[in-house]
Predict the structure.
Amino acid sequence: EDKVVQSPLSLVVHEGDTVTLNCSYEVTNFRSLLWYKQEKKAPTFLFMLTSSGIEKKSGRLSSILDKKELFSILNITATQTGDSAVYLCAVGNSNIIQGAQKLVFGQGTRLTINP
Amino acid sequence: GAVVSQHPSRVICKSGTSVKIECRSLDFQATTMFWYRQFPKQSLMLMATSNEGSKATYEQGVEKDKFLINHASLTLSTLTVTSAHPEDSSFYICSARDHRGAQNTEAFFGQGTRLTVV
């Protein structure tokens, strides 16, 4: 059974701190790993990773994938209160239906940034 | 990026009634859409894969007669929760991918529908 595990489940830090969120996975036919930020409604896309060792960056956020060890990390530097959210990791596997991938989600990490 | 519109955003219904949720891809065609359910403080759980012009593929444990999915066109999929009960109260989200161009593209989510059955 495909599985995505995130850690920690919950994290509380002070504004300005740097945080690292973890995502490990066991899936058949891995295609991609995606990170999402979810505040009160639907998730918003952050990154999609398909190749090992290539860091993706967007402002204070960065992410990297290790396909050998089957994990990814999401880093947030100089955190701000607006970074408070649930961060979801999802893995896309192959699907024979018209090339579409199903996404298997982890439980999420609830990040709280205190002023 | 591509836009997926989901409607309604919030619905309250009486136990025993049916509720229809719509998911539209606004600027691309989606041959496949996905329906997820999310309970409070839990992650998204895939319910079913909606295929245009054919029957949906349901995940294990999801009752297909209770959660009716119709994908009649390349831009619209609907999820109908039939004979809703309080335990069906949840956050339902659809997603779709733009299959044109690159094989690997991110999934775009609708805004979600918060269903409360009273």
Summary: The interface with chain A takes residues 1, 6, 9, 31-32, 34, 36, 41-46, 49, 51, 57, 93, 95, 97, 99, 103-112 of chain B (CB under 8 Å). The longest strand of chain B covers residues 19-25.
